[in-house]
Amino acid sequence: MPDADDIESLRAGIVRRHPLVASLGAMPQDQLAPDDVRRVRQGMAVPASVAGPRAVLLDVDGEVVAIAARRGDEWKPDVVLATA
Known about the structure:
Elements: H1 7-11, H2 20-23, E1 29-31, H3 34-41, E2 46-47, E3 54-58, E4 64-71, E5 74-80
């Protein structure tokens, strides 16, 4: 990982925070409208706009809202992250 913290920094207690979305690798990302974010946070399915069997669902600011599985033409959230 090119942006990983080096061992010396870790030993010194210096740890950088990386965006959650960066740790989810090559999983497709689907950015949701605010109304769809509210639906996903309630466990409801929303229309899918990217291909793939699973996706990271993002809000308009690029923050991870959920990880979802495709059900037909929709995303059904499997894991929903709590709001700050």
